Amino acid sequence: MELKNFIKSLSIMHLFLLGGLIIFTVWVILQINTFNTSTNGQGPFLYAVPVFAMLGYFGSQWIFKKMTSKIKMDIKFEEKLKKYQSALHLKYALIEMPAFIGLFAYYNTGNALPLVISICLLAYLAVQRPNKDNIINSVPLTPDEKKQIQNT
Fold it and tell me: Is the pTM of this model over 0.85?
């Protein structure tokens, strides 16, 4: 596995996930085209969306750190990258799911709170772009593996 292609494929995957969420967000906003800030009569959505968002945000960080901390120093470099990729996929999914739930809630209620939460999650997903420094900081690497990443 060539490292340059690995990072490129992770970046493309991230871009597609982000692009899909952006397109869906714009579509939902254009469909509703109004903002409601009333908290009356919309019970479960107004409580569920922030809870799902917090679970997605904190859960994505916790599970990512847990999965990357289980990567052993003595396994092959390619295996380390595969485990990192799996952890990253799960992290992205845990950020994206609450964002979609928030957009669905906004679509059904017209309340701006779920939309704002979804846009915040979208922004957080945008800054989670994979790069060399993230790999070096997240995966236990030997000095040779770190040099290999930095020289790519």
Answer: yes
